[in-house]
Specification:
Protein name: histidine kinase
Radius of gyration: 43 Å
Largest sheet: 5 strands, mixed
Strand content: 5-15%
Mean pLDDT: 78
Catalytic activity: ATP + protein L-histidine = ADP + protein N-phospho-L-histidine
Order of helices and strands: HHHHHHHHHEHEEHEEH
Structural class: alpha+beta
Low-confidence stretches: 253-259, 388-394
InterPro entries: DUF7134 (IPR055558), HATPase_C_sf (IPR036890), HATPase_dom (IPR003594), Sensor_HK_TwoCompSys (IPR050482), Sig_transdc_His_kin_sub3_dim/P (IPR011712)
EC number: 2.7.13.3
Strand order of the largest sheet: 1-2-3-5-4
Domain Histidine kinase/HSP90-like ATPase: 297-387
């Protein structure tokens, strides 16, 4: 195992350890270093006294509270260290406690506290060394370099802690944004599925209801027409079942290459013809302009809009004629469905008209519903082309 790995593991264990236990151990270590002069006295060295030891202990014991009260601890050690130097029995050879509080203030102190401590200790060391007997030039450099190193290490620790906190906060924000995006995507997909289910079922059931109501009326007088009505009911049911299978196949991730795609603009003539044949509603389809490529969602939206508009005509309008117009522009398709009926009692309401507007908006288009210029009801939807849709979404 490399020394770097050993150091990293030790640092990780130290970060997860009880901070009070770590600070108490650090204070004990500093106290031991300060007491070395008493434990191993040298002949002819500086004088020793128990008062001097108490002053030395005062530079170590406050370190127990260095995280709970960093500035108060720094002040206590800052007062005890020069007092020990002035008492001179013995003077401190190395400012162990001072180095710890400088590191602590650089790592945890407020900006003004860091500046006060750094300036105060720099001046204090210079003054103390100036009044020290037989002070040598290298001692100035040694103490000042030790102070600078301790303060620099504390500053690095502070920056590293802030950087780590920022990364953790960013990770939490990204996680929340990812969860929000997932919830939004789920809600949009549910809304899309609900629109598809509504369009398929409402259209098919409406055709079935119209034919079922007409069947008994003509059963005795025109059996062939009654038989055609029942055939239309069966065809509408089969078509609805087919479209529901496609939707459920997508939900179950079972849609393979051989499965029929969702209907688009190319299927509109068959839709208009089927409505005319199954309901007796005179329905016409007119196309202007040159057809061009559209995004898959826009293709499905165009089909569903026309399907929903014709369903509303059959169910609510009491109309005899409906016209579907496709107006191809250079960068858009305008769909217009008009009838000569009375229109809905409350224009703009109902799930069908809401679904039309939602489909158009989801594709980057717009929808207008209301009474037509010559009476009846009119649905006008503008859908962008593939390139225009991409630009709108970007």
């Amino acid at each position: 195992m490399s020394p770097h790995t050993v150091f990293a593991q030790a640092a990780a264990r130290l970060r997860t350890a009880n901070p009070y236990a770590v600070d108490a151990a650090l204070a004990a270590l500093v106290l031991f270093a300060v007491s070395l002069q008493w434990l191993f006295p040298d002949e002819g060295d500086d004088p020793l006294s128990w008062q001097g030891w108490l002053l030395g202990a005062a530079t170590a014991v406050p370190l127990v509270w260095r995280r709970r009260a960093p500035f108060a601890t720094a002040c206590a050690v800052s007062a005890a260290t020069p007092a020990m130097a002035v008492y001179h029995a013995p003077p401190p050879d190395v400012m162990y406690g001072g180095l710890v509080v400088l590191y602590t203030m650089a790592a945890r102190g407020l900006p003004w506290q860091r500046r006060v401590m750094l300036v105060g200790w720099t001046i204090g060391v210079a003054v103390t060394m100036h009044h020290k007997e037989d002070a040598r030039p290298f001692e100035y450099a040694f103490h000042l370099l030790c102070m600078a190193c301790a303060y620099a290490l504390g500053s690095v620790a502070r920056v590293q802690r802030a950087y780590t906190a920022e990364l953790e906060d960013r990770a939490r924000r990204l996680e929340r944004e990812r969860a929000a995006d997932t919830a939004r995507a789920i809600a949009q997909e549910r809304s899309r599925i609900a629109r598809d289910m509504h369009d398929v079922l409402a259209h098919a059931v409406s055709l079935m209801v119209v034919q079922a109501e007409a069947g008994p009326v003509v059963l005795r007088t025109d059996p062939e027409r009654a038989e055609a009505s029942f055939d239309a009911i069966a065809a509408a049911g089969r078509d609805a079942m087919g479209q529901l299978r496609r939707i459920l196949g997508v939900l179950k991730a079972e849609q393979k290459g051989g499965t029929s795609p969702q209907p688009g603009v190319a299927a509109l003539p068959a839709l208009v013809r089927r409505v005319a044949e199954s309901t007796g509603l005179r329905t016409e389809l007119h196309t202007r302009g040159e057809p061009h490529a559209m995004a898959p969602d826009a293709e499905v939206a165009a089909y569903r809009v026309v399907q929903e508009a014709l369903t509303n005509t059959v169910k609510h309008a009491y109309a005899s004629c409906a016209t579907v117009e496709l107006d191809w522009g250079e960068d858009h398709l305008t769909l217009t469905v008009t009838d000569d009926g009375r229109g809905p009692a409350a224009p703009g309401r109902g799930h069908g008209l809401i679904g039309i507007r939602e489909r158009a908006a989801a594709c980057g288009g717009s929808a207008e519903t209301g009474r037509g210029p010559d009476g009846g009801f009119r649905v006008a939807v503008r859908l962008p082309a593939a390139a225009d849709l991409q630009a709108a979404l970007e």
